[in-house]
Amino acid sequence: xxxxxxxxxxxxxxxxxxxxxxxxxxxxxxxxxxxxxxxxxxxxxxxxxxxxxxxxxxxxxxxxxxxxxxxxxxxxxxxxxxxxxxxxxxxxxxxxxxxxxxxxxxxxxxxxxxxxxxxxxxxxxxxxxxxxxxxxxxxxxxxxxxxxxxxxxxxxxxxxxxxxxxxxxxxxxxxxxxxxxxxxxxxxxxxxxxxxxxxxxxxxxxxxxxxxxxxxxxxxxxxxxxxxxxxxxxxxxxxxxxxxxxxxxxxxxxxxxxxxxxxxxxxxxxxxxxxxxxxxxxxxxxxxxxxxxxx
Length: 295
Description:
Blueprint: E1 2-4, E2 15-16, E3 19-20, E4 46-48, H1 51-61, E5 67-70, H2 81-84, H3 86-97, E6 100-105, H4 114-123, E7 126-131, H5 137-143, H6 150-162, E8 167-170, H7 182-194, E9 199-201, E10 206-208, H8 213-224, H9 228-236, E11 241-243, H10 247-261, H11 267-275, E12 280-281, E13 284-285, H12 288-293
Parallel strand pairs: 1-4, 2-5, 5-6, 6-7, 7-8, 8-9
Antiparallel strand pairs: 3-4, 10-11, 12-13
């Protein structure tokens, strides 16, 4: 790891990266793409040494309460977090100043902070977003080698359900010729149904490949799935989106199964939910229906 002094912490959309880089080792990670201008080795985690102070200043001077998000670029619950604790410090501030919170992670380390997540959710809204890509445990260990497997993430989702903390699942990426099967999609969605997730985000049955992450992904295909790199090159060449040949059929299954279970599966609706700040009033939480009926 290495330390830097940051100039700011919150993006215009109120997202933040407490760390840059990741040690999960996911073979498909888009954050390795050169367009993000990460000027250091991806596994050499960049720590913003003044992040907590910057966040305190930003929250104190914000005119309106909002949702604060993290995890879109780097999973904040990397092992280093257990040593440095920036996420927990940030959660204390978010709770203190009365903001909402949402996080994207693959790690069961989030359970360390379930007390603060509950405190935030009691006053406003706290949503945990969990990535699930494969129902098969052995395959998960190949695709996402340095983080807890899908089965453990499923247990985390159920613990959050029992704590009344809403959850959203990212079912992405679905890798052509690897996990683009009906059994995999159904298996993941069965977990989502049992865990009573609010919604499932899925853009398509495929993945994105850009300069930086494409080279890393292909190197991992050579190591883990001999011969598959050539199949990808033949099928997708240098396309940005590598879409499964079964995408249409699998997307239909996805939408039908979510619809039958009452799980939100319209990405726009889910993103609106994630970005809408809500306050609990007289023991009742305001919902999107309340916001739609105001005025």
